[in-house]
Amino acid sequence: METYLNLMLIRFGLVVGALVVAALLLFAVALTLRRRGELDRVRRYADPVMRAALRALARRIEGRSGGTPWPRRRDGLR
Fold it and tell me: Which of 4, 66, 67, 78 has its CA 20 to 30 A from that of 21?
């Protein structure tokens, strides 16, 4: 049991470490784009993509019925 808990702790540490590194990289990219004056141009391109992704997520969440994790297909199959 102790070995399992140690492995879970190591896995948690790796996941959190990867998230921290990804956040730092994203911050560095945003800072570089801001210094070059290209952040507004990137924001104009990213805005429609983010809006479409949020609309798709909202459709997926609203489409759930009866506690099923995914919406049913029109032909009744999952």
Answer: 4
